[in-house]
Design goal:
330 residues; alpha/beta; six-stranded parallel beta sheet; 36% helix; globular; binds nicotinamide-adenine-dinucleotide
Length: 330
């Protein structure tokens, strides 16, 4: 029997997941719900499902739910879904402050249900190559520089509003914080300088992260850079080696003083593959099948929120902030 999946929220990212899940024979896309009924109806027509009139109606018909609603709703909707005994895939960010993240993590742990967070970058081919090089010790990261810029805080029209996004770090750079801990392990402290240029919210961050391994990483993130390419990049330095990503299009590396540079280019792959969405959805369905554990857990989501909160605190108070709990379990 296929897994009956419902999708809450019928906007941009819901369309991406629905298009991918619709090709997985293990899944039946069952119901769509959106507070704007016409949007759910459009998705239902496109994917041969039903438009539910309420979240409750959707929950009654599904085994698992994708939550693709705005950031501020994630805890509330996920709590409803868990209380109904259904598995959860919820888009990033996990939550918008530490109290909310802790509540949701603990609720998810008590439920025994699957909870996967939508940190899709982990499954982008360029980042998989980087992660494999680190895990296989081909690359021993000694120093890191990263950036993730946005072009503007104008589109979609609510993205400038920190009350709706949780703040710039929760909207876009949240992906980089997840990757930082995924690649390099536990962050011990963060030191951050930040400024506000528009809309009264901090939108320009210079971040220094110190990891348990001793590794130091710098990260720059700025909200109004134009969409000058690449707006996302990692430079990871080992002993006489450099790995460099160029957006999610390309990764180049030189390993040793005498070695030539190797480049893998994914520019011809589809956006769904390049950005990691196909693999994250496949792994969620694998977890529903009991084949594997979900690859990005509520614990992971919680740890990213803790790191972001530490960065905001450091920026506000001008102090180095030490993290309390491990950012990742190894
Ligand atoms: N992982 C990624 O790469 C990625 C990319 C884009 C968006 N996202 C995340 O996905 C989420 C949705 O983003 P989007 O770009 O699709 O937004 P969107 O505005 O295009 O769509 C959100 C939809 O949710 C509906 N909605 C709002 N509140 C609701 C509620 N309580 N119940 C049901 N429906 C509700 C809205 O009417 C809208 O149709 C956000 O949290 C965003 O951060 C993640």
């Amino acid at each position: 029997m296929p897994h009956k999946i419902g999708i809450v929220g019928s906007g941009g990212v819901a369309g991406i997941h629905a298009a991918i899940l619709a090709k997985d024979s293990r899944v039946k896309l069952q119901h769509f719900f959106d507070v704007e009924a016409n949007r759910a109806q459009a998705m239902a027509s496109r994917f041969d499902g039903h438009a539910a009139r309420s979240l409750e109606e959707l929950l009654a018909e599904c085994d698992a739910v994708y939550i693709c609603t705005p950031n501020t709703t994630h805890e509330e909707v996920a709590t409803h879904v868990l209380e109904a005994g259904k598995h959860v895939f919820c888009e990033k960010p996990f939550a918008l402050n530490l109290e909310s993240a802790t509540r949701l993590r603990d609720r998810s742990a008590r439920s025994g249900l699957i909870y996967q967070v939508g940190h899709n970058r982990r499954f982008a081919p360029v980042y998989k190559i980087l992660k494999k090089a680190i895990d296989s010790c081909e690359l021993r990261p000694l120093s890191v520089h990263a950036k993730m810029n946005r072009g503007e805080l104008a589109n979609p029209p609510w993205v400038w509003n920190a009350r709706l996004t949780g703040g710039f770090l929760y909207e876009t750079p949240v992906h980089m914080f997840d990757l930082m801990t995924f690649f390099f392990g536990r962050v011990c402290w963060a030191q951050v300088a930040a400024r506000a240029h528009e809309h009264g919210e901090l939108d320009d961050f210079s971040i220094l992260l110190n990891f348990e391994s001793g590794l130091q990483a710098t990260m720059k993130t700025y909200a109004h850079a134009s969409w000058h390419f690449p707006f996302e990049r990692f430079e990871v330095y080992g002993m006489h080696s450099t790995y460099e990503t160029f957006e999610m299009e390309r990764i180049s590396f030189t390993n040793g003083l005498e070695s030539r540079t190797t480049t893998y280019d994914f520019s011809l792959a589809t956006m769904h593959e390049k950005w990691g969405y196909i693999e994250e959805d496949r792994l969620f369905v694998d977890a529903l099948e009991g084949k594997s554990l979900p690859p990005v857990t509520a614990d992971d989501g919680h740890n990213v929120v803790e790191l972001i909160e530490a960065c905001y605190q450091s920026a506000r108070e001008g102090v180095r902030v030490h993290l309390r709990s491990p950012v990742r379990k190894f």
